Amino acid sequence: MNALQLASEEEIQNPLLPALPEIIIGLIAFAIVFGFLAKKLLPNIEKVLEERREAIEGGIEKADAAQTEAQSVLEQYKAQLAEARHEAARLRQEAQEQGAVIIQEMRAEGQRQREEIIAAGHAQIEADRKAAASALRQDVGTLATTLAGKLVGESLEDHARQSGTVDRFLDELEAKAEAVR
Amino acid sequence: MSADPTTVLAFETDCHIFDGCGFPAPGLHSFVFEPMFTVGGIEINKPMLLAVLSTVVVVGFFWAAFSKPKLVPGKLQMVAEAGYDFIRTGVVYETLGKREGKKYVPLMVSLFFFIWIMNLWAIIPFAQFPVVSVIGFPVALAAIVYILWVSLTFKRHGFVGGWKNISGYDPSIGPALPFVMLIEIMSNLLIRPFTHAVRLFANMFAGHVLLLIFTIASWYLLNGIGIAYAGVSFVMTILMTAFELFIQALQAYVFVLLACNYIQGALAKEH
């Protein structure tokens, strides 16, 4: 037993010297591992990893597309809303302007009618005043000449009518009243 | 005293402290295995069998996970995808970029998981041997990477450009250029593949020796007052096992990362 051990120890004095059988077995063993992994198993998993990546990215792309669509719809909706608001504001503005114009017109119309009524009133008063003045002048003249005739004792009516004394007197009075006013 | 390499255990079981029996220390003999059977002229021993089993485990795992991959992954596929993505994105794309790196993803994924499982045997009960602590296996894997990056260098830059790339040709260095080129060529063509293989080998070799020391000691000290020491040693065994679990994955990762770095250097425009 000792001899055998010594012999084998001498055989392997240098553990750094490789033996050919081990190199060959090592190469074959590794070649089999490499063959299976490189030719079949790793391409298999690489394909699946690629598919998975695509599946995940496809999902992400779909989600992206949905989000983009939602965004565009939202923007569209917002734009419509803004447009509607704008339209409403415009209508309100228009209505206000129209209302202002109508009020203006009504006011002008009222003013005009008022002035017309006032003018008509003035004209009526003037006409009445003139009628009253001429009637008064007539009556005052008649009364005055009648009174004067009674005082004098004879009828002065004809004379006064002929000479226009009464009229002249009244005109003077009027002129004085005008001057005072 | 003698540790028969043909026995299933790495040491003699009837040897304890205070029995006049010396510590059956592990050594190079712990890494020698008698052939178990012969296939096609090659004598198959334990490490070789474990290497082949690693192939079965890696292919079996990825077959179960990726043979009928689903868009919505199951648990197994999810775990395998995480491992795949760790090497693809975390190592290959990180060093080579997505465009250049795509081609090398299967190689690096295969390398990582193959090495990791070969390392993992170190703490699997009954296997308990890291395959890459036999130098032949890391040499085979490092050779694949070496041939790949050297041929890539010449394919990408042509004959002269390839030598310029490997020698770090840079006239601005001045008179020191010949020395620099010599050192660079030595470093890249001779030392690099050696360290690439040995880094993996030596880490797993040392890890296995450590585990053996504490495991054997736990058993050897199991006599009289020694039982207290054995307890300490056993705790160390557990701690070292956990530590090895970490180192195994780390070394597989480092091997693959370096492989990517070498390829990246081969594809780089100029030094």
Molecular structure report:
The complex is a heterodimer of chains A (181) and B (271). Chain A is an all-alpha fold and 181 residues long. Helices cover 92% and strands 0% of the residues of chain A. Chain A has one domain (35-180). Chain A is built from 4 helices and no strands. The longest helix of chain A has 133 residues, at 20-152. Chain A is rod-shaped and about 195 Å long. Chain B is mostly helical. Chain B has a two-stranded antiparallel sheet with strand order 1-2. In chain B, a hairpin with a 2-residue loop joins β1 (37-39) and β2 (42-44). In chain B, α2 (75-101) runs parallel beside α6. Chain B is globular, with a radius of gyration of 23 Å. The chains are: A mainly alpha (181), B mainly alpha (271).
Number of domains of chain B: 1
| H and E string of chain B | EEHHHHHH
Taking all Cα atoms into account, the compactness measure Rg of chain B is: 23 Å
Describe the biggest sheet of chain A? none
Largest sheet of chain B: 2 strands, antiparallel
Low-pLDDT stretches of chain A are: 1-9
The overall pLDDT average of chain A reads: 85
Q: Please state the CA-atom Rg of chain A, rounded to the nearest Å.
A: 66 Å
Q: DSSP strand (E) fraction of chain A?
A: under 5%
The largest inter-chain interface, given as chain pair and residues per side, is: A-B, 41 and 53 residues
| Oligomeric organization of the protein chains | heterodimer
Could you estimate the helical fraction of the residues of chain B in percent?
55-70%
Tell me the distance between the termini of chain B.
56 Å
What best-fitting shape of chain A do the alpha-carbon axes yield?
rod-shaped
> Taking strands numbered 1, 2, ... along the chain, how are they ordered across the largest sheet of chain B?
1-2
Question: Structural class given helices, strands, pairing of chain A?
Answer: mainly alpha
What structural category do the secondary elements of chain B indicate?
mainly alpha
> Roughly what is the average pLDDT of chain B, rounded to an integer?
88
